[in-house]
Design a protein that fits this description.
Elements: H1 2-15, H2 35-42, E1 54-59, E2 67-70, E3 75-79, E4 84-89, E5 92-93, E6 101-110, H3 118-126, E7 146-152, E8 155-162, E9 173-175, E10 179-180, H4 183-192, E11 198-202, E12 214-218, H5 220-224, H6 226-229
Parallel strand pairs: 2-11, 5-9, 8-10
Antiparallel strand pairs: 1-4, 1-12, 2-3, 3-4, 6-7, 6-11, 7-8
């Protein structure tokens, strides 16, 4: 029993181990789960098919190369031309940690290190979850295979687009504000996105302003032939 409790504690710590990994109660049709229940219910949850990478027909006024993040529907769009985008499934901020705005990719890193903010370490310590002061990059690192660091007018926003060692969390509101992706998807996006890329985050507060975003569904041919769809 002690070993089971230790294992559960370690899993919960990993689930909250960064701005991009945390435990939040997911609202279902029947009831609202407690954060602890998410681990039991979803830790072996397969990623729903709709959150797999797709080429979609998209109506937007944003230029090709722009990233648009729809936190309500858990999709990240990479605009490829005037009428198409690559759409990826994402995990987003839990209640109280959602945000919106226009930022840019200022820095990129492969298999990034992770140094949790002091306030996060203190917050999780109060919950009984002891976070490391620093973690080297690797498969066990909550930031996953790649990270893109988002900066605004005032500098580092503290938010990242990054991979995850918990793919079951894609499609859920579990993070502390970061945008997490499956490692294969963040690696793909990372290869396309240069430093300076504009990122629009549609979310609470409407700080992103008016954004034209109409997802018209999967472009089957472009999804089948990667040479056409990216």
């Amino acid at each position: 029993m002690k070993s089971f409790k230790y294992l559960l504690g370690a899993v919960m710590a990993a689930a909250v181990a960064l701005p991009g990994i945390a435990a939040k109660a997911e609202t279902t049709k029947k009831h609202k789960q407690k954060s602890e229940d998410v681990v039991y219910a979803d830790i072996h949850r397969p990623v729903p098919e709709k959150f797999q990478k797709r080429v979609v027909s998209l109506r937007t006024s944003e230029n090709p190369g722009t990233i648009i993040i729809d936190t309500n529907n858990k999709f990240l769009y990479y605009v490829t031309d005037n009428s198409h985008a690559l759409r990826y499934g994402i995990g987003v901020g839990r209640e109280g940690f959602g945000w919106s705005g226009v930022v840019k990719v200022q820095r990129k890193a492969e298999w990034p290190d992770w140094t949790p903010p002091k306030e996060m370490i203190a917050r999780e310590a109060r919950r009984g979850h002891m976070l490391p002061a620093h973690m080297d990059g690797g498969e066990d690192n909550p930031l996953g295979a790649r990270a893109m660091y988002l900066f605004g007018k005032k500098g580092d926003s503290g938010y990242r687009i990054h991979g995850t060692n918990q793919p079951w969390s894609i499609g859920l509101n579990l993070s502390s504000g970061c945008i997490r992706m499956m490692n294969k998807d963040v690696t793909d996006l990372y290869s396309r996105v240069p430093v300076g890329t504009k990122v629009i985050v549609i979310g609470p507060g409407n700080k992103q302003g008016n954004v034209v975003l109409e997802d018209r569904g999967t472009d089957i041919l472009r999804s089948l032939f990667s040479s056409l769809g990216g």
